[in-house]
Structure formats: structure tokens, C-alpha cells
UniProtKB/TrEMBL annotation:
Gene3D superfamilies associated with the record: Dehydroquinase, class II (3.40.50.9100)
Protein name according to UniProt: 3-dehydroquinate dehydratase
Pfam families (alphabetical): DHquinase_II (PF01220)
Family of this protein: Belongs to the type-II 3-dehydroquinase family.
GO BP term (any one): chorismate biosynthetic process
Organism for this UniProt entry: Algibacter pectinivorans
GO molecular function: 3-dehydroquinate dehydratase activity
Quaternary assembly: Homododecamer.
Function text: Catalyzes a trans-dehydration via an enolate intermediate.
InterPro entries attached to this UniProt entry: DHquinase_II, DHquinase_II_CS, DHquinase_II_sf
Length: 133
């Protein structure tokens, strides 16, 4: 399960110098073709509570969760606690190198509860996360 947080629905339009020009739907279609033996699902929400609800819903039945919580990474204790409360391993993913950006992006409430963290490789970060399961 790939779960994306706020503003990631704007990929392909939002700051292409940081996030690239491909929409996530276009990218998701490519990785589904590249990994035909992996059943991939995708969910995106700009609402923190909906992300927590989705983690609760899939966190006991999927083999892995790839989570890019966007800005909630740096603000949401609730998402961090949700990851701590589920059984499915979570890999935290970021398209950009968050340590190469504003200081507030250096803190993550997800990392302490994640299986691992992959950041800075563009959309390929998601592929590396798939390979980690």
C-alpha cells in the first residue's frame, strides 16, 4: 500500500524543480507495470485524520506500507502513534532530500516507528521502498 499525504496530489504541477513533472498517477501506472507480481494499491489524502484511518485500516492486513506523509511528517504525532500501533511495517519515503531543505523538515515523527527511511531519490524513492519488502 502506498499512502501519500498533503499536496502530493499536485505532483507534476507543484514545484517541478523539486518534485519533477510526472504526476503520481502516471508514475503509479509505470510501477504497476514494472512490478506485475506485486499487488500495489494507492491512497492519497490532504487530511491528517484520513491518513490515520487508512493506516489503521490496512495496518494489519498488508505486507508493507510505503508512506510519504508530506508536511505531516514534521508535525503529526498522531500519524507517528498510528504507525506504532499497527503491525504492518512502514517505510517512510520522501521525494526530496528533506535534510537539504528548511530546518523544520529535518524532524520526523514517523522515522522512529518506521522500518526504514528513503529520501532524496525523486519518485525512485518509492521503487526502493517496494524493493525493501
Amino acid at each position: 500500500m502506498i499512502i501519500n499525504g498533503p499536496n502530493l496530489n499536485l505532483l507534476g504541477k507543484r514545484e517541478p524543480n523539486i518534485y519533477g513533472s510526472l504526476t503520481f498517477t502516471e508514475f503509479f501506472d509505470k510501477i504497476k507495470t514494472k512490478y506485475p507480481n506485486v499487488q500495489l494499491e494507492y491512497y492519497q489524502s490532504n487530511i491528517e485524520g484520513e491518513l490515520i484511518d487508512k493506516l489503521h485500516h490496512v495496518g494489519f492486513s498488508f505486507d508493507g506500507i510505503i508512506l510519504n506523509a508530506g508536511a505531516y511528517t514534521h508535525t503529526s504525532i498522531g500519524i507517528g502513534d498510528a504507525i506504532k500501533g499497527i503491525e504492518t511495517p512502514v517505510v517512510e519515503v520522501h521525494i526530496s532530500n528533506t535534510f537539504n531543505r528548511e530546518e523544520f523538515r529535518h524532524q520526523s515523527f514517523i522515522s522512529p516507528n518506521a522500518k526504514g527511511v528513503i529520501l532524496g531519490f525523486g519518485l525512485q524513492s518509492y521503487e526502493l521502498a517496494i524493493q525493501s519488502f
